[in-house]
Specification:
227 residues; mainly beta; eight-stranded mixed beta sheet
Length: 227
């Protein structure tokens, strides 16, 4: 099973629309290149009760149907939150760069990370850049997110993709292999002010060398918990 998503692909100075069948969805965790920053994020989650990983990076499989370009998602209870991640997607034998939010149930994460990843939709932007066109200046790319919390829009995350391992290294560590129809989230940055829920979450990846940005945002509707 999988999910078909229509993207705008940008390569060679041209753009085209293509519907891609995502059949394998992977969340790569603990991908930090800077071990100090990685430890900060591990401690950040430990404060929420999340056990530190046995090894890094680590790869979580989720249902491909969780990936969506919708502008709104629903979550069970008020304890979920988003986090910006760059995404690598392979289609037609070529790899593409995108951006998404690994929206996660933080309460469930304290006792089952894999389950917590599966519980929430994973919003992604509908634009992709050819990965080979950005690799020569990879460390200059920036990712950031904004969150609307109690009606106020704040910077939630911000920094360079250089905080994470290079994409080729992250992909190489995924033992099942990375083929057509595979999409992988590749790591995140520590939240400014700590992890917390938001009514709306916005995220982007910026290429200052080629002067372009991919961005997306979504509203979060909290469903009541019975009992």
């Amino acid at each position: 099973m999988g999910t078909k998503i229509t993207f705008t692909l940008h390569a060679g100075g041209e753009s085209r629309t293509e519907t891609i069948d995502i059949r394998h969805a992977v969340i790569a965790g603990w991908t930090g290149r800077d071990k100090v920053a990685l430890e900060k994020h591990i401690v950040e989650l430990e404060e929420l009760g999340v056990a530190r990983p046995a090894s890094t990076p680590i790869y979580y499989r989720v249902a491909a149907a969780r990936f969506t370009t919708a502008g709104a998602i629903e979550s069970t209870g008020p304890e979920s939150s988003g986090e910006v991640e760059f995404m690598i997607l392979q289609a037609g034998g070529r790899r593409w760069l995108g951006v998404g939010s690994d929206h996660t149930d933080r309460k469930v994460e304290t006792y089952g990370i894999t389950v917590s990843k599966q519980m929430c939709d994973k919003p992604i932007a509908a634009d992709l850049w050819a990965l080979d066109e950005v690799l020569p200046h990879w460390d200059s790319l920036l990712i950031r997110s904004h969150a609307v919390i109690d009606g106020a829009r704040v910077v939630y995350q911000q920094g360079s993709v250089a905080a994470m391992l290079p994409p080729q290294e992250i992909i190489a560590g995924y033992e099942p292999g990375f083929g057509d129809g595979t999409a992988m989230f590749c790591g995140t940055l520590a939240a400014i002010g700590g992890i917390r829920p938001a009514e709306r979450f916005e995220f982007e990846i910026e290429d200052p060398v080629l002067g372009r940005i991919i961005r997306h945002g979504y509203d979060v509707t909290v469903l009541p918990v019975a009992g």
